[in-house]
Design goal:
Immunoglobulin-like, 14 helices, single chain, alpha+beta, 9-stranded antiparallel beta sheet, 7-stranded antiparallel beta sheet, 21 strands, 647 residues
Length: 647
Amino acid sequence: MPVNVVEVSRSPHARLRPVPLDCVDIVGGFWERWVGETARAAIRHQYRMLEESDRLKRFRWAAGRSSERPTRSVFPFDDSDVYKWLEACGFYFAKSKEDKLKGVVESVIDDIVASQEEDGYLFTEHHGAPERRWKNLTFDHELYCAGHLIQGAIALHRSTGETKLFHAALKLADLISKEFNPDGIRGVCGHPEIEMALIELYRETGERKYLKTAEFFINERGRDSLRPSPEDRLNNALYRILGGASYFVDHKPVRELDEIVGHAVRALYLNCGVTDLYMESGEEALLWAMERLWRSFVERKMYITGAAGSRYVSEAFGEDYELPNERAYAETCAAIASFMWNWRMLLATAEARFADVMELTLYNSILSGVSLDGKQYFYMNPLASSGGYMRSPWFPCACCPPNIARLLASLPGYFYSTSEKGLWVHLYGTSKTALKLDGVEAVFRQETSYPWSGEVKLTVETEEPATFSILLRIPGWCEAPSVRVDGRVYRPRLSTYLELKRRWRGKTVIKASYPMSVKMKASHPYLRNNIGQVALTRGPLVYCVESVDNTVDPRMVALEGRTISKEVFRRGLLGGVTVLSFNARLIDSAGWREKLYRSLDAPMLARRRAVVKAIPYYAWANRGGSVMTVWLPLIDFWRSKSPKSPS
């Protein structure tokens, strides 16, 4: 069966249908290593971590297969890390048939199913304690874990036909539908996830009760039902410290939301479920709410890297324009959640702006969350570091590593979609897909060095003449894009889809050119910590200055002039990256000796100049601890124009 992350082929209000990831081959270029070698290494490494951290032992203990209670797994929601890892394996198996890994997965599934209780309940923290079930929806995350189990089971069911875990997921979903409804438990989970999982289960099975239960959870939200009782002093205090109802996005009914607030992953996962519900129901009020939240996020609360969530204490969105750099929380899971939500908004609307945010987030705040070898991870993704911040092989709360694994393993499924018009191209990278358009078999290929070059060669081959459209996303970051087909040149608008409708015969070559120049980006004046500073971007990539590449401290550098002196692709550096070099003045460090503040009467800049190098932000901290910054002071900031790249 087709392996899709989001299966909307029968969703009446989805405008696009994803091309299944098992129908897309990544055959070179930038993404081949990430979806192959890096994803494979991450999956294998994470299995070892799941064992070493006792997460797998939780299931064996609950099933009576281990006499010792796990001690190294401390959070009640740790089950979810295993489920996300299984989902990653499900997507990975769509393109790879590794028998040894399949054997490991079957063993893990056997332990999980053995721990399920007779009525379908499955949550190792409360195993054998029915009096504790559903009593602390605010913090226990039973429904959150159930959602990840369902999604993992669906991925394996689609890619391998696996039924054992899938039937366990159905049994648990049936219990949830029986317990949570207007005549049963009136409550929601403190961490949204179950909503999109149940809707995907409805799409997989056709059972409307799962859709109705998901809709129930969405409708129940906003009733302040997650507030702990006054007698529960500990959880009550934690609830208030975190931010109360708005932290859990339980302060307003979903249809009335107009500002993105609260825990970033919770808010964005909820938006995924709401957008899924819109694609099934067509209720415009849901889409309008999502539009308001999207603008709140993208226009006032999103980092230049696409990252989400600025506050350390609560992993939450802050106020408008509250986007600190060194103390940015910018959780990897939040970036992935944003990618997932924008994918659903793209499927629902077919608007390129959502794919633009997906691309920005993917290349910057998602890839930064994993090392080049796939075995080290960032939980937080700051935009500046004074040194010492490094990726880790695992975390006590380890939600991010398996989230990265499932995203990388499923990435081919985000490249293309279809509609009644034809084939839509969302992401650029060397790849191939074969599908039927206008009743005719067609093969579509991309050849490109993207994101290092904006030149893309697209080849369409049909067995016999057929009429359909190829719709190319024109990136919002690009200036002066052009597309050439059979001698005709198109000059499309930015952040749109260029529709090439024609009768295709045999082999046709499309040449798209998205010129990549280095740009200096400024932030809104209300974002006070970036006043007088710029960030360097090239194509979809955000750049940073890292101390390992420079003889000077990146914090003591000020850009001079508006010309980037060099753009050089270095194949042997960090897996192959384009490095930027530019002229800079150094801030007078001697004048600050033993001073925290000083008069502006003295010169602020030293006479010394330097050539400074910048690398793509996603690649930083792969060579040991270092000082790093994305935002750089610009000497003539208030009179500046965008930089000129070397001719």
